[in-house]
Amino acid sequence: MIRRIAILGSTGSIGKKALRVIEVLNSSLVARGSSLEKEKTEYEIVALSAHSNVELLAEQARRYKPKFVAITNTDYTGSLRELVGDLDVEILAGPDGLTEIAQLDEVDIVLTAVVGAAGLPAVLAAAQKGKTLAIANKEPLVIADELLTATAKENDSTILPVDSEHSAIFQAMQSGSADEVSKIILTASGGPFRESSVEDIQNVTRQQALSHPVWDMGPKITVDSATMMNKALEVIEAHWLFDMPVEKIEVLIHPESIVHSLVEFVDGSVIAQLGAPDMCLPIQYALTYPARVVGIAKHLQLDELGKLTFERPNLETFRVLSLGFEVARTGGTAAVVFNAANEAAVQEFLAGRIKFVNIVELIEHCLNKHNVKRRVSLEELLEADAWARREVIECLKQKVL
Ligand code: MG
């Protein structure tokens, strides 16, 4: 059997890992020589996309030989053409190029790892075509929540979470039926400021916010982990992905990042998924689902870990987490504004133009000013997204903070 894959965002942290996972799956295919049908599955990389990292995209095209490559920032189309001119690969450019590869007839699984709202039209297009969607970034489920889940349902498109917590929940959920679940517990590492008070975080630097104790991720997500915006978005994501009322979702700090999340059933049983803190495992599970095969992930040595700890998050330090629950309850366009305001604010923080604590202030400002709309189209979602970004810039111009 062959599973044909398109990776949206192949030069990012998740994209690179996914390629490595696929490479190992395919190479062990030869070594295994297994008679099991599931172990004979081959993974073919049909399409890759990047925003602007043409050098790496070209290198990947040379190594993995996809039929299509897409570059979303058209400033780089020319240099991509030059770099892969000798290869038998079709080049697509601009946001439409991304949408095009997501809909290709020769693709079964679309792995999406595009940071931000940029990948949204492509994800929706893939859902319309009934593709299996392996979603690694949070935005599709956070921003297009209702629209995406409905579109997927209508077109028999399966959504498989790659986010480690949601992959864990998805796996644990298989121990019972949805109506037997009493609670979903999302774990959070707590990031670099887990033990910090509100006072402590007033003057943290870019460097401090970027040094995550456990996970190795891109800068935007690392900052989101430091504010716990990451977890706030995951609450919204879980609410939509598992059709779970917000009241049944809880967040616990688990600094070791070994238990990736838990599901409590009505009888009191709690099913958890554990694994080394490495995205390779959730990526692989989404690609091989429902099969489990030998792969790249390191196996746990529980005796070496000794103990696993859990604690409640400090909602004063991590104010954005409370906002996340509120946004999930509100629904409509609240989540798109929440996410876009954060993206814009984090960009400003990374550029050294605002303080760490200003991020949540800007988000809160946008949420307060926004009139929530319900049952919206993609256009209206993107409008709300653009509004929040403008509002953040406007705030900074007028020195509202
Ligand atoms: Mg996560």
What is the topology?
Layout: E1 2-8, H1 13-32, E2 42-50, H2 54-64, E3 68-71, H3 77-84, E4 90-93, H4 94-103, E5 109-112, H5 120-128, E6 132-135, H6 139-143, H7 145-154, E7 159-161, H8 164-173, E8 181-188, H9 206-209, H10 219-227, H11 229-241, E9 249-253, E10 259-265, E11 270-274, H12 280-288, H13 302-305, H14 319-330, H15 334-350, H16 356-369, H17 378-397
This protein binds magnesium ion (MG).
Describe this structure in words.
- The chain is an alpha/beta fold and 401 residues long.
- The protein has three domains: 2-162 and 279-297, Rossmann fold (3-Layer(aba) Sandwich); 164-272 and 300-318, no CATH class; 331-401, Orthogonal Bundle (Rna Polymerase Sigma Factor, Chain: A), CATH 1.10.1740.
- The chain has 17 helices and eleven strands.
- Strand 5 (109-112), helix 5 and strand 6 form a beta-alpha-beta unit.
- Helix 10 (219-227) packs across helix 15 (334-350), helix 11 runs parallel beside helix 14 (319-330) and helix 15 crosses helix 17.
- The N and C termini lie far apart (57 Å).
- Magnesium ion binds next to helix 8.
Brief digest:
The protein has 401 residues and is α/β, with parallel strands linked by helices.
Throw out a few tags for this protein.
single chain, 401 residues, alpha/beta, Rossmann fold, Rna Polymerase Sigma Factor, Chain: A, 3 domains, seven-stranded parallel sheet, four-stranded mixed sheet, 17 helices, 46% helix, binds magnesium ion
